[in-house]
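To the team - zinc ion complex, inputs and output below.
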Amino acid sequence: MNSKPIIVAPSVLACDFNHLGAECERIEKAGANWLHLDVMDGHFVDNISFGPPVVESIAKIATVPLDTHLMIKRPDHFFPRFIRYVHNITIHVEPDYDIGSTLRGIRAGGATCGLAISPPTPFEKVEPYLNQIDLLLVMTVNPGFGGQTFMEPMMAKVKRAAQLRAERGLDFHIEVDGGINPNTAAVARECGANVLVAGTDIFKAHDAALAIKELRD
Ligand code: DX5
Ligand code: ZN
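Output:
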């Protein structure tokens, strides 16, 4: 079911923030393909994480693409503050703003664009945008916190995305985020996901290289 290469994107949210740079280097050496950066504003989700200065700091040392997940109420307003530092910007479909023009703005700014869908949101909400995106992020937990349990019913969205991608001759990545471990990664890969975001499973592992390998294989 999977034609695209598997990409493992550790979520920096689970790192030891006292040693942010060293943590990024450690996880890159362990085999991370991308670094996943979870930006939260305390409005769209009930948590606040980090913003542009921290993303800029990570960009100075990172040697892999930065995958930025904006869990914020006004992605249209804030994406320009991130775009020069990162490779991909993913925005959510749920808040009230002009999604189409924001996706176009991200590409025009030189990054790839992703669209994310939270667990309660019906898949139909993202369908109109599938031909304008480089990545579809199917959230497998409610956004806001690391360390939650994978919601298997979201695999119906992953399968539907893979089906529509084939039917429409599109090429976007399908990413899953939340509660990813070797067992749930295998399920998600089987359903058609090729980008695996994992925070706890990788950063809290005794052997991060082994954890990444186990997600990929
Ligand atoms: C949740 C974030 C995730 C989170 C994943 O809002 O988008 O990226 O950090 O963490 P784990 O892998 O611990 O579920
Ligand atoms: Zn995320």
